[in-house]
Amino acid sequence: MRPIVLLLAFFALQTPSTEIRLIVKGDDMGAGHGINVATIDAYTRGVLRTTNVIVPGPWFLEAARLLRENPGLDVGVHLAITSEWENVKWRPLTYAKSIVDQDGYFFPTVGPRPGFPPHRSIKEAAWKLDEIEVELRAQLDAAKRHLPQATYTWYHMGFTSLDPTVAELAAKLTKEYGLVQPMDTGIKFIGRAYESKDSGAVKADKLAARLETLEPGLWLHIDHAATNDPEIQAMGHVGYEWVAADRSANLEMWTSPKVREVIERRGIKLTNYRELTGK
Question: Is 137 helix (H, G, I), strand (E, B) or coil?
Fold first, then answer.
């Protein structure tokens, strides 16, 4: 297989300078049943074109099955060494004592955060790079077994900010496993178009307005989809207790005719990382 960098350069050269391309990405499959089904719904009825999966998440196997049943949906490996929610957690796939709390769960955050108790982040622990590498390899191996169509990596909660050596490790493993780092594609974020407490209808209006302003280039819109039911309503942490309302509103936004109309009228091409890499 040709090097990914050359593939990306080839596809960039083939793209007319006037074309607007958009990747709509839904994060965190595998973390909950309601996240899994809502993400698939956002793809089948809406504009979502790629997702990613938290391999140590409690609903990973269901996520993998749903993705095999929907082969047109691009998927990435959402490498994770944190577990942020208060009522549901995930643990490493390997023995990684330096990056877990006293109960064996991943720490909630990468670094200290206001409102969180002290010593609840990886940065405050005596983390070991070799244990992080073994864990990330285990997640990639499991992803390859269950999701051979995976095309990219995505770093949960930006854990590569922990240390430059962690960022280097993640980049090395991504390349070794034949995947791509999205930021290597030259993609640009569309920016914050709405607030997390906006309703689905308001989010749709605001996203549609933002899409009206997109200039030619490759753009990324990223958020999360979920159902609004007791499972997702039980998810949350200090400072973000409205997860179900927020993420179910995203599903409404991504399936909104208003958003679709702008995309079709402006000739915005919905794409994904699989198409960019030619995998």
Answer: helix
